[in-house]
Fold this sequence. Notes:
The complex is a heterodimer of chains A (325) and B (328). Chain A has 13 helices and two strands; from the N terminus they run ααααββααααααααα. With 325 residues, chain A is mainly alpha-helical. Chain A has a domain of 191 residues: MetI-like fold, CATH 1.10.3720.10. In chain A, helix 8 crosses helix 11. The model of chain A has no long low-confidence stretch (mean pLDDT 84). In chain B, strands 6-7-8-3-9-10-11 form a seven-stranded mixed beta sheet, sandwiched between helices. Chain B has a four-stranded antiparallel beta sheet with strand order 2-1-4-5, with helices on one face. Chain B has 328 residues and is an alpha/beta fold. In chain B, a hairpin with a 2-residue loop joins strand 9 and strand 10. The mean pLDDT of chain B is 84. Chain B is globular, with a radius of gyration of 21 Å.
Amino acid sequence: xxxxxxxxxxxxxxxxxxxxxxxxxxxxxxxxxxxxxxxxxxxxxxxxxxxxxxxxxxxxxxxxxxxxxxxxxxxxxxxxxxxxxxxxxxxxxxxxxxxxxxxxxxxxxxxxxxxxxxxxxxxxxxxxxxxxxxxxxxxxxxxxxxxxxxxxxxxxxxxxxxxxxxxxxxxxxxxxxxxxxxxxxxxxxxxxxxxxxxxxxxxxxxxxxxxxxxxxxxxxxxxxxxxxxxxxxxxxxxxxxxxxxxxxxxxxxxxxxxxxxxxxxxxxxxxxxxxxxxxxxxxxxxxxxxxxxxxxxxxxxxxxxxxxxxxxxxxxxxxxxxxxx
Amino acid sequence: xxxxxxxxxxxxxxxxxxxxxxxxxxxxxxxxxxxxxxxxxxxxxxxxxxxxxxxxxxxxxxxxxxxxxxxxxxxxxxxxxxxxxxxxxxxxxxxxxxxxxxxxxxxxxxxxxxxxxxxxxxxxxxxxxxxxxxxxxxxxxxxxxxxxxxxxxxxxxxxxxxxxxxxxxxxxxxxxxxxxxxxxxxxxxxxxxxxxxxxxxxxxxxxxxxxxxxxxxxxxxxxxxxxxxxxxxxxxxxxxxxxxxxxxxxxxxxxxxxxxxxxxxxxxxxxxxxxxxxxxxxxxxxxxxxxxxxxxxxxxxxxxxxxxxxxxxxxxxxxxxxxxxxxx
Lengths: 325, 328
């Protein structure tokens, strides 16, 4: 089995990593000043020291740190992320309700960034000194240099306010009637601007990297062999060169997964996208520790799964990485 | 006999940061069906450029075909459309390269890489082409060809990979096989095996071989005729035996002197003559003057060498002012 053994090995590392992330997150949040008792007393218009003590006892915040940590890890291992006192819901329910929206945004953005980045990278590698190539470079540098939230705001001003092509905020227009396709089209319309904003920075990275690796590959000996076989240029570029130049791009895409998620938090805030980012934002404001921890946990999970997938894809692309199982 | 390939006054220039330099300056030679032409010279003398020009693969820019003609079976290749050149490449004229370690695509199975050429030029189905690929692997002496066809290049040794390259090159029964230093990167024992294989293939398929090398030993082993190149020019040409026994150009003499005498003298190390060397290096192309390019390294140079000598004589031609004709 070429894939099974390394995958299982990776999986066991991933679980250990996840537990480490859990402990680290919990410890860091514990060090931060303020807790749920502060939020509750604030909403009550202030409370005396005795009431504060009472609240902390009720929520188990008076226990020693190590006990709290142990309890938390134990609960998470039983798939229980705790209870959000602010939202009055189990954290898992809360997150699972928001996760699909974020995943939709993140995955679409990554796919768009990869496809557009690779296409433009390949295109500009074939005539590296042409006008079109320089234009791609310019656009890529702009995308790379501009902060995601700023790009998002500019897009909003341009295509929602000045030229009202796309909706300003949210994910679904409740007034839209009709079947599945009408609803899907509505969501797609809402997605256009957030996806462009979120993919701009990554498309820039991927197109630059793809251009560089493509240029390197096109100068290699086996491309000369492919030419000597009499293959057409398009076959040489799209078959022989592309598969070889994809490895670094896929590797980078995997490494960028965490950046995409943190970018999603900003983009969601700008476009009021009802996902994990918006949830994280308000949970931080409200010092809703269990929810923050839960979101961090899920983000780590998504990143780890993303890296595992990257690994698998790399194995598919490049036989030299496959180990004998 | 009508030559299979006829190269006349071929001139190739390159744009470099020193300005335009002449990488190949008026090379002419013929290759006849079934023969082996050896092209010898040091690195940078224009051997590989000549081969790439025949394949129509001079990278342009910076390369420029500045003049001359390449005729394959009477058909002019320098002006042929790309479409026609692609048909010839890998079909009628094929090439193997110096670096077997990097000349195969690392992400495709070797069987597929052979089959690809067959499907392209012979229009075979995938299955037919794969069967033929396995057969070719057997012909080039790879054990367990069926299993090896689904190996990736990194799972094969250098010698095996060069065998795969040869299998690709002969897959469509080409008329000409250009071998650009096919054994330079290989062990000596493997070199001998590859030469042996090339000879077998030549006998079986009657293919003409243009063998590019810097190794006079390889020439002695393989070539029927020899063209010696120096700084973008052919400086001596003739039958391999004539040139090896009676070299006319001081540079050729130098190259022959570089063959280790091991085996010629059966005595101990003390009685072996010291290995000869040619002093200096090939001058950079942008510094070439009007005179003989070899004059600075030549111990026979005199005043006449300030003018570039012409290639004279037939069938043994030499471009040297000091040359006074064949002894034989």
